[in-house]
Amino acid sequence: GRRDATNVPTQSLYLLNSPSVQRYALETSKRTIEVAGKDSSPESKIEHLFQKILCRKPSTEELNGAKTMLEELK
Asked: What angle do CA 40, 42, 32 make, to 5 degrees?
């Protein structure tokens, strides 16, 4: 089967505003701090998240992009 390409903005809004998705994100961040360590480097936390969520290590480009995003959020 094939699925037609669609653009559903309500799906993105649901994911941003969903209490369940926000709770999952919070729990994932808490587990990352527990496993990687509170004082661990941003790189080790990013690598842990990639391994846990995507089952692989981040590429150099992904690692640098994630580090930049974290710095902008501070």
From this structure: 65
Instruction: Give a three-class secondary structure readout of the chain.
Output: CCCCCCCCHHHHHHHHHCHHHHHHHHHHHHHHHHHHCCCCCHHHHHHHHHHHHHCCCCCHHHHHHHHHHHHHHC
What global pTM score does this model have? 0.70
pLDDT of residue 40: 86
Q: Encode 28-67: b = buried (16+ Cβ within 10 Å), e = exposed.
A: eeeebeeebeeeeeeeebbbbbbeeeeeeebeeeebeebb
Q: 15 versus 4: which is more confidently predicted?
A: 15
Length of the chain: 74
Res. 59 pLDDT band, cuts 50 70 90: very high
